[in-house]
Amino acid sequence: MSDFLKNPADLFDVKGKVAIVTGASGAFGALASKILAGAGARVVAVAGNAEALDQVAGECRDLGAEVATVNARPDREAACDGIVADAVKAFGRVDILVVASGKNDVCKITEMDPVRFLDVMDANVTQSWLMARAAGKRMLEQGEGGKVVLMSSARGLLGHPAGYTAYCASKSAVDGMTKALGCEWGESGITVNAIAPTVFRSPLTAWMFEETDQAQAVRKGFLARVPKGRLGEPEDLAGPLLFLASRASDFYTGHILYADGGYTAG
After folding, report:
1. Residue tagged active-site, from 167, 252, 258, 263
2. N or C: at which end does the chain have fewer Cβ atoms within 10 angstroms?
């Protein structure tokens, strides 16, 4: 009998692993930081908003985690290299990268200035590429593999009629990057995967969970496409993240994991 069968849950163990989370002050980044903290990882929380970053770091420490903070945005090569250097200075290595930084800008294409389009592409694509590059260099030097988890969306696969050309294009690019890096680093032991959620409860989407006429109308139209019949809750992201951040996913790379209640299935 294989040893892992004695305690299969050990496959999901991230205790002591060093995890960089960018966009740690945002909805998914804060959640990812706290999930990894609660699971015993040493968290390097990264965000440009110092006040919100300190709050997330405090919540992670309340969960018993060792936490280092980096008040920076992953928007330049030097900044990303510095984030990795700070993580190594704090904890000696890098095992996990979660890129949760990004943005959306909803606007019809005919009304959207090209600069706004490029801003979305930069936040979602270029910054993911720069962080994967910086962390990947360190992981390759360590020679012990690693886990890269990028943030995609169901909108990387599906279009949207309400001015999502920049966002959909950016998330499709993240999907392509995930697959390409999964191939490029396949033999190194570094896995590269993406989580692609649909609507989840967060400060930005809280209005959709309310019982107002507008919210109920929007939910009704949206849920008609969701086989599970509900919107996403934060805990629905915990399992996918721990899977992709742990050795449970060692044979999985270049995958887009849709956390969407079946939204993209039908």
Report:
1. 167
2. N
